[in-house]
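This part of the workshop introduces the protein records we will be handling. Getting from the letters to the tokens is the skill we practise here. The record below serves as our worked example for the rest of this section.

…
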Amino acid sequence: MSLSNPYRYGALGRIDSIRLLKLKPASSSDMTLRCELFDSDRSAAPEYEALSFVWGKDERSQRMELPSGCLKITDSLASALRALRSNDKPRQLWVDAVCINQGDHLEKSHQVSQMAKIYGQAARVLAWLGESSDATLNMALALDLAQKAKDIGLLSPRSENRETMRKWAYGDLKKLEWMMGVMDAVDDAGFFWLYQSSWFTRMWIVQEALLAKRLTLHFGTVSLD
């Protein structure tokens, strides 16, 4: 079948079935997106990663090529897949925009009801925050900040973090100065730009992030695990 023909979804075979996307490798980010979609019972699915991203404008100006046709996708999804694509091996993903037949309302309704299980079962959730052309995230500083937080016990919920910080620094000028240095490092690391991503405004990130066995933030060409 010609790749100029639109891809046609088949019906999912079982109530527990999901589709997974096999993203084929490429040696360059500007190469055509080539993929396969295949069905699997969710309970017996091979290891996969789930993508969390902002759909953006519903203008499907990009496309991915599959063995039986092409599927039009948004700029946002195309940029995410290009950034996540390996140069030497396939990557198995669950991506709601393409793994759910968006034109089949019954399937869409059922699959959306299963999303908590799908994200919870994924080996990793990949959060695509978008391109980082306006600024960069200094990964060395970001990881150093994460280690500093761990060193003083900031592994608890945010409300308890405030109390941890107060007890740790109370009455100690050197520690207060250290905290001011950390605030400067947050600016230097580029966290301001990181949190400007529209990904943080999505209601669904609460479910997708909290259910993740492991969450990796991808910001352009850098990532934070």
Summary: Confidence is low (pLDDT under 50) at residues 152-162.
